[in-house]
Amino acid sequence: MAWSDICITGLGESPVGKVPEKSSTDLYAGVILDAVDDAGITPDDVDVLITGGSRVDPYLYHAEMMAEYLGITPPTCLTVNTGGSTSVSLLRQAAALLLAGMAEHVVIAKADNLATGMSRDSVVESMATIGHPELESPQGPTIPSLYALIEQRYLHRASLRPEEIAPVAVVDRYHASLNPAAQYRDPITTEDVLASRLISDPLRLLECAPVSDGGCAVVLSRRERASGKRPLVNVLAVGQAHDFEHVTQASSLEYTGARISGPAAFRDAGVSPSEIDVAMIYDAFAFIQCMQLEDLGFCAPGEGAAFVGDGNTRLGGALPVNTHGGVLSHSHAGRPSALFLVVEAARQLRNECGGRQVHGAATALVHGEGGILASHATAVLRAAS
Amino acid sequence: MSETVPFWEAVDGGTLAVQRCADCGHQQLYARDACARCHRRHLDWAPAAGKGVVYSYTVVRRAPSKQFADEVPYVLGLVELEEGPRILVRIEGCEPDDVRVGLPVEVAGPGDAAGRRLPPFKPTFAPSQT
Fold this sequence. Notes:
The complex is a heterodimer of chains A (385) and B (130). Chain A is α/β, with parallel strands linked by helices and 385 residues long. Chain A has a domain at 3-118 and 211-225: Thiolase/Chalcone synthase (Peroxisomal Thiolase, Chain A, domain 1, 3-Layer(aba) Sandwich), CATH 3.40.47.10. Chain A has 13 helices and eleven strands. Chain A has helices at 24-39, 62-70, 86-99, 114-117, 120-128, 143-158, 167-177, 190-195, 258-269, 286-295, 304-309, 326-329, 336-349; strands spanning 6-13, 48-51, 76-79, 105-113, 198-200, 203-204, 213-222, 233-242, 278-281, 363-370, 375-383. Chain A has a nine-stranded mixed beta sheet, sandwiched between helices. In chain A, strands 5-6 form a two-stranded antiparallel ribbon. Chain A is globular and about 55 Å long. By secondary structure, chain B is mainly beta. Chain B has one domain (5-129). Chain B contains one helix and eight strands. Chain B has one helix at residues 5-12; strands spanning 16-21, 27-28, 43-48, 51-60, 74-81, 86-90, 104-107, 121-123. The relative contact order of chain B is 0.20. Chains A and B meet through helix 5, helix 6 and strand 5 of A and strand 4, strand 5 and strand 6 of B.
């Protein structure tokens, strides 16, 4: 067994946006069954079920709960949450189980219904608990304000003006306009972004992720156990990095752990950034994409915003990024967002993206970050030959 | 939970304290039972000067909860203390537009231990002098 024997074999996606008729557990069940069916296996074939829990329905043993709901008994059930890096880092843990011969089919699933399952105030309040409970949260930060601290420092370091970040949101929305499944599909301009209200300076509303319902699931299998129903996608390598949990504890907010996870993934995959045909980068806030493009080595330090502004990340550009619409415009149901990046990368490599297909896409990168740019995971995927 | 009474007594008195490792001298906040640098477990409290520079900042315009709704907008500064640790505090005593990365700041008055509010900070020099 080698990494080339580890394949993504099945994908499942729910509708996103507002899905009031479904609970988070209903969404989870649907995407797990869809992904298993897409893989050409049955629910009883699943050896390992990994979920990310739910903010709306915080079951104590969430993966076990989902197994019970579905009437299956996978011997390994895990509930894992490292925020927006989880879904990418889990590709590595799943691969390890498959490589060790401890599993044949692993399902990774994420779903939640933040838009209709709880009030907007409750979502903001719930997410703000990410601050340190004794020293940070009592001072009144929100998630956007904690990210805004990083953006401000980044703008200072890179000598950028806030308006130079806006094209990230415009490109994400353009891609979403090509994706019938995306939540926000009406094209926007840089002027629209700059006219939207300030949430926490310098972050404006259209540079912040929406609040959504939705979920998705991925099946990973050993190649010899794949049904052959769909084209196979190899997971070539996954790099990880973890520096801090609270913004006050970061050694630096000028660069991110993507500087470690990215090169590790490229090295282990035997691939260079110039060989990446399409990239999916977690961008719950617009500036994140600029920092990560730099830290992953797609452009020089300080040039991430210009890289986007010059059109490189648009479909047809040198490196199309977030062809599903990104976290900003496809959806943000919280924990599912990074797994949607994996699903979109796999769909590109399976040539299933229709009007937003990157022609000839053979190698893809997925980067997730969790916490306040604290946990990082980078995966390199390739269409199996 | 690590002992934090000395820290909050300092806050109520309009000063700050940092936890100091007796073995390697590393100074840290928040309080822990182990040094985050040498990982040994002999820690004490030391008074802090209450001075630092703005590492970054933001103006919060959407409150995290009803508790803060009457306070927006407010400036949150990530302040790097002279002793090394960074803390998240309110910046007061100047216009939000006067705050910038690298601005020298100092404690502007007492905090509130009961509400876990850290002391507000203000620019060390009047804006026109910086």
